[in-house]
Amino acid sequence: MRALPDAGTRLRQGLSSDDWTLRAGILVILAYLTVTLLLPMSALLSKALEDRSGAFVGLQNFARYFATPSLSNSIGNSLFVGLVSTAICVSLAFVYAYGLTRTLMPGRAVFRLLGAIPLLVPSLLPAIALVYMFGNQGYASGLLMGESIYGPIGIIIGSVFWTFPHALIILITALSLSDARLYEASEALGASPWRTFWTVTISGARYGILSAIFVVFTLVVTDFGVPKVIGGQFNVLATDVYKQVVGQQNFEMGAVVGLVLLLPAVLSFLVDRIVQSRQGVQLTGRSIPYAPKANRKVDLALGGACLLIGLAIVSVLGTAFFAAFAKLWPYDLSFSLRHFDFDNMDGGGWASYVNSLRMAGLTAVFGTAIIFIGAYLVEKTRGFRAGREAVHFLALLPMAVPGLVLGLGYIFFFNAPGNPLNFIYGTMAILVLCTIAHFYSVAHLTAVTALKQLDPEFETVSQSLRVPVRRTFLAVTVPVSLPAIRDVAIYLFVNAMTTVSAVVFLYSPATSLASVAALNMDDAGDIAPAAAMGVLIFCTAALVRVIYTVLTAGLLRATQRWRHR
Amino acid sequence: MRTFWTTTVAAGAAALAATAASAGEKLTVYTALEADQYPAYLESFKAAHPDIDLEIVRDSTGIVTAKLLAEKANPVADVVWGLAATSLMLLDAEDLLMPYAPAGLDAIKPNMRDSADTPSWVGMDVWSSAICFNTVEAAKKNVPAPASWQDLTKPAYKGHLVMPNPASSGTGYLMVSAWLQIMGEADGWAFMDALHQNIATYTHSGSKPCKQAAAGEFTVGLSFEYRANKSKKEGAPLDIILPSEGLGWDMEAVGIISATDAPEAAKTFADWAVSEEAMRLYAENFAIVAMPGVQKPLEFVPATIEDMLIDNDFAWAAENRERILSEWSKRYDGKSEPKS
């Protein structure tokens, strides 16, 4: 850790009222994150050590867990699907990212858009589409050569689909940062293209690849939308948590499985942090960015590969659309809107869709404000290092906490009879708080990155001009950081629309959500309406993205002109 | 504890009728009725009692039961409506139900209510096992039509069967309980061991097997008669088969949670739930209802259904529910999918 540079001098100079404002802000954010993150997680921990009546029983629940093969077998199952999905997903994403960044293959802009599609759907939608593609009535079930899609095969294909963009984004970034001088050197030394690929390209992207591996593995293992829909009798940890809690009301065992699920997530989070801290020295001021040259063979090969991957993405989404509008698959494929008659199905009907819009809107507005201000305080407060680091640590913590586990912690914490915040239980507020906490990390990092690009002189100058920090924040920082603020808002909105994992434990009859409704409709056997709801969520997320981009384009032009001087 | 289940708010902002004694009261109703059944029922209730706000929490039988038991110390529900009688008997054994004789109790079949003078629960209708058999897929895959439960253990059905998980689904539990009763415990479990070899997957809900059979995803769905009738009406190529050994069945029933803070409104609801008007609505969906004069056969379900119901020992089914379910889970749940 770096030594604190100037705390002593600062103190001697005395603290201005602005300093105190910022420090008070740090404390407020700290309190906020403690309540919405730390306390629920500790509630989960202590629940795992209690029996049904609330008495402390030590590790007894864990002993029972490992003595029950039908539960502990899921660890192996989860590891298996996690590893295989990760291997496939990261390989495919690497090829795709390579094509996008290192070749001049045609249609790169289109491929970039296609690759992002899975971000806009709930994870259970690809699983539903797979039933239509490879189920017993699927139009492509012959490709499975007699194997059943219900089980590990389905989980793996579905997981690869929805985690693909997550790996892709990381790998695109990793492959974009590359020094052309290394390639020249390699060529000059007479290395074959193959050797250059391994020693320069792969080696340069190795941290990105590692990071992608850990991110994808965590996402797969902690997701429960895909295995819930297509897992059949193949149990994994994520579905076990749900079964214990919702199916059997066995909250203590749910907490135990939740903690088991936390392990791989925390592990990969730690490794990822270490990897991240080693990266970043690859590009220096003298680097020359690599620019791909046309190479017909390579362009064709990668273009073909990307085309196949893009087609796979489109066909999964297309199948979901078709299923949503076909009257009675597979016997009557005429067009029908009857699957959109949500009010006669499980899950809360159209009201759940409206609830989802509200929840996503509130999450985007409040989440962006809280997260951006939090990031600002971490970056711009002078001194008070302990407070800043505590906020930064808590802000990154959600990355290691699976949504299901967070949601479970919320039940235990907010529903405890003595909790003064008990009144938000069962309301929209708890869904919004939980969703903000769930997606805090990525949003926080985006904001921090944007703020780091701002010259600290802004604050120094305003201070010497005796402009209050609040004014500098609103008049300079916010307008200048608008692109990042917009990205954070869209990120929160889309994730709030599609998430199932945390909120599945927290909604009440009055606050049912669209993504959860899709899950419940599938549970009841209404798979086409579940597809219809998933398609509706996709269209909404896509539309909001487009509208938001268009609306903010003018604003961005006005506020971002300085970047293009 | 507020809820986080499959739920539906079916409460309109009821106009407050100043005259009613229970003006503007709110009732939380737990139910396992099908999502495509109860909206029609509720319309009738709302028309008669616009002053009572209903909050409906719906899920599968097993989940509603587990939830009610888990909330024992601090109940949320005021009324349980359309839940299996075996589950209500369990709740009654835990002293969770308030005995109440709804208006018009005399008109209810004596064997379809709690036998106590002031009953803790009153039946609404009977629902029973039925097999949904997809004739199109059967022809394609050469799967013969089953006539009995025992037929389903034949190798011809391997991978073509789907049935509800009895831990979550009331429809699943009434099948398992019936097999154990008609075959005896030892033979019943042996039958299920053999059946398990043919089952493609166990589902969360009792409707899903029939919906999957209707879509041809699996050829034979072990389900219940309402869903079978409905799916066939919607145009699915189904035959509805009632196996010869007899049908498992249970009653959907209504009861009041004793800890309710709105006892008057709860009683009003219970009165309505066993009224002739409500019974007529139940009769649209079920062949056998608790009020004798009201019932009528379902369009596609054989009229013999009432004679095929087994002689069901409800007390046994309720008392042994937990033991049977844990044995079932030990044997068949959590096994990874057979590699075939």
How would you characterize this protein structure?
The complex is a heterodimer of chains A (565) and B (340). Chain A is an all-alpha fold and 565 residues long. Chain A has a domain of 263 residues: MetI-like (MetI-like fold). The relative contact order of chain A is 0.13. Chain B is of the alpha/beta class and 340 residues long. Chain B has two domains: 147 residues, Periplasmic binding protein-like II (D-Maltodextrin-Binding Protein, domain 2), CATH 3.40.190; 149 residues, D-Maltodextrin-Binding Protein, domain 2 (3-Layer(aba) Sandwich), CATH 3.40.190.10. Chain B is built from 13 helices and eleven strands. In chain B, strands 1, 2, 3, 4, 5, 6, 7, 8, 9, 10 and 11 form an eleven-stranded mixed sheet that branches. Chains A and B meet through helix 4 of A and strand 2, helix 2, strand 7 and helix 7 of B.
Provide the descriptors you would attach to this structure in a database record.
heterodimer; A: 565 residues; mainly alpha; MetI-like fold; two-stranded antiparallel sheet; disordered N terminus; B: 340 residues; alpha/beta; D-Maltodextrin-Binding Protein, domain 2; eleven-stranded mixed sheet; globular; disordered C terminus
Strand % of chain A is under 5%
> What's the order of the H and E elements of chain A?
HHHHHHHHHHHHHHEEHHHHHHHHHH
Helical segment count of chain B: 13
| End-to-end C-alpha gap of chain B | 44 Å
Low-confidence stretches of chain A: 1-12
Number of DSSP strands of chain A? 2
CATH class of the largest domain in chain B: Alpha Beta
Q: How does the helix and strand content of chain A classify structurally?
A: mainly alpha
- The fraction of residues in strands of chain B falls at 15-25%
CATH H-level homologous superfamily name of the domain at 68-330 in chain A: MetI-like
CATH superfamily of the largest domain in chain B: Periplasmic binding protein-like II
Low-confidence spans of chain B: pLDDT under 50, at least 5 residues?
A: 1-23, 336-340
CATH topology of the domain at 68-330 in chain A: MetI-like fold
Overall pLDDT confidence of chain A: 89
